[in-house]
Amino acid sequence: MTLTARRRQILVLVANGHTNAAIGRLLGISRPTVDRHLAEIYTVLGARDRAQAVAIALAVGEIGVQQIRIPDQPRSAA
């Protein structure tokens, strides 16, 4: 179970919360191309959706947790 470098790149962007349209813009590819890559990612990983694909990829080492940006949390006013 190995993803191509491009598919890993797309999955990292998914893990960071980007939409398919945003991924297409960032990588200079069309949204249908992103959709095709994601369909293949799901097949290779045996995932049924984006969240499961990210979870499986992390578990098997296809992507690393250090590649995922944790959004800043709003500070409480207290």
Short description:
The protein is mostly helical and 78 residues long. The protein has helices at residues 5-15, 20-27, 31-45, 50-60. The longest helix is centred in the middle third of the chain and has 15 residues, at 31-45.
Helical stretch tally = 4
Distance between the termini: 48 Å
Low-confidence stretches are none
Q: In which range does the helix fraction lie?
A: 55-70%
- Global Rg: 14 Å
How many beta strands in the DSSP annotation? 0
Q: How would a textbook summarize the main sheet?
A: none
Oligomer state of the chains in this structure: single chain
Structural class: mainly alpha
Give me the strand/helix succession: HHHH
What would your notes on this structure say?
This protein is 58% helix and 0% strand. The protein contains 4 helices and no strands. It is mainly α and 78 residues long. The protein starts with a helix and ends in an 18-residue tail after the last helix. It is globular, with a radius of gyration of 14 Å.
